[in-house]
Specification:
UPF0759_sf; 9 strands; alpha/beta; single chain; TIM Barrel; 296 residues; 3-stranded parallel beta sheet; 10 helices; DUF72; globular; 4-stranded parallel beta sheet
């Protein structure tokens, strides 16, 4: 992922902003439940994750899914996969593994949530549900030029979304967050519809760290800079998530990207160690990545 890439990450202030005041209201609305934590990469392709797979690995998904408990499934952004393909992915992965697929670009980038987008949504969902209990939150990523003037399209899309399926949305146009009137309308819509408000942590787009949760799911897309600051940034996230756990967060879905993706498994493993230490999680520690040297 090259989104938000900068030439000199050491010059960026990576401290996380304070929480939006309404985040704690959302977290404290109900009694606390057991917390669910999923940490993983965006891809399992061997070409992207060089050095992660042992020599001779034939089935990358089979191996990956026994090291991490989830995948942010970006492949589904480029085309609608068949029902059979989703079934194959289901069969290859162990119990407890989850897929968090991105909605196809026909919906977000080509049709841009226009009125004629529904057939693509219906087809996508009809196939994806064959992941059954391994289907995590489906997420929608809007283009950076998708501005608040299209708010009515967002409302229509959210209202028609099948309520039995969890949904998260990532907005990238800065006015969704910098315009307080727009932001409040958006947050109200997502909160009332139980849609997660994705937080994107990228070096070049610090404005996307709105820190406004709209339900008890923290869906975080973390973009490392292939720099030593990646470690301290993850430590900062562990501290914030520990605080959110104390406030009542129920679901943590944390996905590690890199400008050069081959290092994502190492950072993911480091973050899993932090979750096990700071949040008393019992996540499996990837075995092969543990044999690798540090990133920097």
């Amino acid at each position: 992922m090259k989104f938000g890439k900068v030439e000199h990450p050491e010059a960026i202030n990576f401290l996380l902003p304070k929480d939006h005041p309404d985040t704690l209201k959302v977290l404290k609305e109900e009694d606390k439940k057991d917390i669910s934590i999923y940490v993983g990469c965006a891809k399992w392709n061997k070409q992207d994750l060089k050095g992660f797979y042992p020599r001779g690995t034939k089935d990358e998904l089979h191996y990956y899914s026994r090291q991490f408990n989830c995948i942010e499934l970006n492949a589904t952004f480029y085309r609608i996969f068949s029902e059979d393909q989703f079934k194959k992915w289901y069969d290859k992965t162990p119990e407890g593994f989850k897929f968090f697929p991105k909605l196809v670009q026909n919906i977000s980038h080509l049709k841009r949530l226009n009125e004629d987008v529904q057939p693509y949504v219906d087809q996508y969902v009809a196939n994806a549900i064959h992941l059954k209990e391994k289907l995590g939150t489906i997420f929608l990523q809007m283009h950076s030029n998708f501005a608040p003037k299209y708010f009515d399209r967002v409302v229509r899309f959210v209202e028609k979304w099948p309520k039995e399926l969890s949904l998260a949305i990532e907005f990238r146009h800065t006015d969704w967050f910098n315009d307080k009137v727009v932001a409040n309308e958006l947050y109200d819509l997502l909160e009332n519809s139980n849609v997660a408000n994705i937080i994107t942590d990228s070096a070049g787009r610090r404005d996307l760290l709105h820190m406004r949760l709209t339900n008890k799911e923290a869906f975080i897309r973390y973009v490392g800079a292939n720099h030593e600051t990646d470690y301290t940034r993850l430590e900062e996230w562990a501290t914030r998530l520990r605080f959110w756990k104390d406030q009542g967060i129920e679901d943590i879905h944390f996905f590690v990207h890199q400008n050069i993706e081959k290092e994502s498994p190492l950072l993911s493993r480091f973050f899993i160690e932090l979750m096990n230490k700071e949040l008393n999680a019992r996540l499996h520690l990837p075995s092969h990545a543990s044999d690798e040297a540090t990133l920097f």
